[in-house]
Design brief:
The protein has about 210 residues and is α/β, with parallel strands linked by helices. It contains eleven helices and five strands; from the N terminus they run βααααααβαβααβαβα.
């Protein structure tokens, strides 16, 4: 089926990955690499992170709950300290690709986010907030987990994006940096691209669309 829409994750796709920031924090504090990701992988649909992204708990409640979960895993980290690590820098080349795609296809963003920071991408400064606002304005729809009360990898959030765009999953390409988020999209019929690096993602998207970026 002909591609009609491209749906993008935000963090780690259109911005640098927060996982890199997590790793720097871990290195600076004598914590094993990927420890924070490991905490978030335990009970991934019901843990503190999942509840906060779905707006089931407040920032203060998340702060306490994440600290308890990380302490149980061996290193107590305040939840608010992790939130401060979420903001990434916009990837200009990827944004240019998005602009080219917008001229030819419907475009939307699905982002798992929390009610913290400045705006849907959790920017930590006004400058970053302004930069990401410009990118967000390119999308026809932005589906935020904290606003909808559902989060990736729940299939309903992908179905919601397709409904708002007026397309079927089979007409859609979806980009995300996490395999766990790509699996349900693929099962719905979307063509999926795992973003390992900016260059790789642009090449793979071009191959799917038959466009040279």
């Amino acid at each position: 089926m002909t591609i009609s829409a491209i749906v993008w994750d935000f963090g780690g796709v259109l911005t640098t990955s927060p996982f890199d920031t997590f790793n720097r924090f871990e290195a600076d504090n004598g914590i094993p690499v990927n420890f924070i990701r490991g905490v978030n992988a335990v009970n991934p649909t019901t843990n503190a992170w999942a509840q906060f992204e779905s707006s089931e708990i407040s920032l203060d409640e998340f702060d306490t709950a994440f600290c308890q979960e990380s302490a149980a895993a061996g290193h107590a980290i305040a939840g608010k300290a992790v939130i401060e690590l979420l903001a990434g820098d916009v990837r200009p080349r990827m944004v240019e690709v998005l602009k080219r795609c917008k001229a030819l296809y419907k475009v939307a963003c699905i982002t798992n986010n929390v009610k913290a920071g400045q705006g849907p991408t959790m920017a930590d400064t006004r400058e970053r907030a302004a930069a990401v606002h410009e990118v967000m304005a390119l999308f026809e729809h932005v589906i935020e987990s904290s606003a909808e009360g559902i989060r990736k990898p729940d299939p309903r959030i992908y179905e919601l994006a397709c409904r708002r765009l007026g397309v079927s999953p089979a007409e859609t390409v979806y980009l995300d940096d996490l395999g766990i988020n790509l699996k349900p999209a693929r099962e719905l019929g979307m063509r999926t691209i795992k973003v390992v690096s900016e260059e790789q993602a642009i090449i793979d998207l071009g191959a799917v669309l038959g466009i040279e970026f």
